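The freezer alarm interrupted the setup, so I double-checked each line after restarting. Inputs confirmed:
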Amino acid sequence: MNSHDALDGATPCARTEALLDAYVAGDVDAQTAQRLDAHQATCPRCAEAVQFARSMHGALSALPVQACPPQVTRNVYRAVRTQKRAALRTSLRHRLVQGMASVVRPALAVAVVVMAFWWIRPQTAPPPVVTVAEPTQAEVAQALHQLKWTMGYVSGVGHKAGVLVRQDVLLPHVAHPIHQSMEGVLVE
Amino acid sequence: MHRFKTLVEQHKDRVYTFAYYFLGNAADAEDVTQDVLIRLWEHHTALDAERLTGWLMRVTRNACIDAYRRRQTYQAAVRVDTEGVAYQQAATLMASPDAAVEANEFQRHLQAALSELQEPHRSIVILREVQDLKYEQISELLGLPLNTVKVYLHRGRCALRKALRTRIDYELS
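Predicted 3D structure, all chains:
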């Protein structure tokens, strides 16, 4: 330490006090060290202070390296082993999940596609099977009889209304079509 | 794991020594050392040999500061008192019958006074005087300019000397 300019006006004791630690540690220049040596020889108080500082400096340097207790390293290794096991479990779990995902994802995709196709397939209903029993001769005769009776009745009503129902309405628009379809059935 | 064990064997005493003198307490030093070495396990693969020592001491110092602050929250803070009062707590810390090293009275007071220094003076005194690191190493470790390290070291020695003197005078009286 060479910050002595500010101490030029100081008393020798004040200068000694300010530079004491650097002096004892050997961090002052030769000239300053000489001045301090000279002052010590004449000042018991500063000499004692220097001695005290030297003792402290020596004791500091002599402070021993402390040996780390064995239980500290044992605890550290135990903690490290626990961390490693936990990390391994996490890694295995992660790999298992990834492996399952690599199987489940494609399977899900296939299932979705199949379901989509099933959902959008065209809905065509099969034609209903209708079994029609062929009418008997008696049934046909009865139907014709009923029809003629109905036409006669309607014709009578029409006659009263001044309308030739039979000629103008029933025959062309009702009887004939029915007769034709009846004939179609009878033919089959 | 083998490399980690090698590093532990190389550095455990350095870490423990710093923590011991910083905290002035073997139990706290053991806790800090354990925490630091576990952190070494978590980071040692990312550190090369050159940076490892500096990293380790930085982590140790930070862990010591945290431990010291935690202790201060439930213990009465003991400051260096030039009037010569209120040293009892720090004195009992170092006078533990379980202390690994049997220190003489002067050394006992010295260690107690050292554990009371303000930061960063305490760290710098320990690193320079006890662990014999060079100024450049301390500068890099603490992230301080070289001249600042020298100034702090000077102030730390001065404060330590005064605290030690007051302790001894107090005990003698």
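Quick read of the result. The first helix of chain B runs from residue 2 to 23.
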